[in-house]
Model the fold of this input.
Amino acid sequence: MSHDSNFITLIGEILIAGTSLPSEGDDFVTFKTLSGRTFSMYHEQDCCESVRIVDVKGNIADLLGVKIVSATETIDGAESYESATQTIFTLVGENGKAVVIEWLGESNGYYSESVSFIENK
Done:
């Protein structure tokens, strides 16, 4: 079972091993925390869309064992033939290291291009 959660929920959490190392082309990321919480970032694909990670700046390994002090999500339209949504998630640890995960969703405009971030229960 899961429920919707804001990305900012990661602020104050400490990421641990078992957290996915996101890379280009992925469509699912898992975050595990020292407090025992697990979060998922993904998109439920439908027939006529594509939503995936197109870029990762930084290394999530630099944030393992470090308290997260900032977690932001930015959503913007992107240049595309029909419809596109760019979603950028940025995590910053108390060590000053940052990871930026950029998703791109493309469709004919009828389907969702959003990225879900939920806490798994």
Summary: The CA atoms of residues 49 and 112 lie 8 Å apart. Residues 2-120 form one domain. The two ends are 5 Å apart (CA to CA). The chain has a mean pLDDT of 86.
